[in-house]
Amino acid sequence: GAEPGEAAVLVPRWEAWPGNNRFFLGGRLMTGPEPFMLLFTTLLLVLPVIAFWAYAVPVAEDASRTSKGRRDSAQARWPLPVPGYALALPAAALLFSALVSLYRAGCTEPGIIPRQDPKRSYTGPGEPPQRIEQVINGVKVSLRWCSTCEIYRPPRSKHCAFCNNCVLRFDHHCPWVSNCVGIRNYRYFVCFVFSTFCLTLYVF
C-alpha cells in the first residue's frame, strides 16, 4: 500500500495480470503464453492456398480455355461450367473464414474466473476443504478447491497449467490458437476447425 501522504498509483489490470497470458495494444488483445503460434498457424493456412493459386488455378484456367467451344466434343478436357480462375474463390472464402475464426478464438478471453472471487472463496476457519457439495439447479455437485486461484471451481471448470488460470467450461488448451478453449471462444474454435477441414479438402 501507499505510505501516508503518498498518492496511490493505479495500475491497469492487464499489467498486473497474475496468469501467463500475453497482452497487446494496451491490453485490448489477450492471447495465451505462446502468441507466436498464431503466426505459425497463419502460415500453415496461407502458404498452401498461395501454392494452390499459383499452380493449380493457372492449370485449370488453361484447361478451361483449351476446352472452350468444344464442351460437347469428345476432346473436351474441362468438365465444369465455370472458368478455371473461379476455383480460387472458394479457397479464398474458406481461408478468410479460417483466419477470422482463428484470431477470434486466439484473442477472445475464454472465460477466466477471477482469482480470490468473494463469491467462490472460502470464508471458514482453518484450511479450506478440497471439495465441497453444493446444490445447483436442484442437482448436488462437487466443487473442487483451486489453491492457485483460491476459489472453488464451478462444474466443468479447470485450471489451465499453460495459462495459469481457471476457465469456465474448460475444454482444452490449444497451442495452435495460443489460447484455452472455454465458454466464450468455443464457437470460434469449432468454426476454425470446420473451416480448416473444408479448406484442406478443397485445396489438397
How is this structure best described in words?
- This protein is of the alpha+beta class and 204 residues long.
- The protein has three helices and nine strands; from the N terminus they run E-E-H-H-E-E-E-E-E-E-E-H.
- Strands 3-4-5 form a three-stranded antiparallel beta sheet, with no helix packed on it.
- Helix 1 (36-66) runs antiparallel to helix 2 and helix 2 runs antiparallel to helix 3 (186-203).
- It is elongated.
- The relative contact order is 0.16.
- The model has no long low-confidence stretch (mean pLDDT 85).
Write a compact overview of the structure shown.
The protein has 204 residues and is α+β, with helices and mostly antiparallel strands.
Topology overview:
Elements: E1 22-24, E2 29-31, H1 36-66, H2 88-107, E3 131-136, E4 139-146, E5 151-153, E6 158-160, E7 165-167, E8 172-174, E9 179-181, H3 186-203
Antiparallel strand pairs: 1-2, 3-4, 4-5, 6-7, 8-9
Helix pairs in contact: 1-2, 2-3
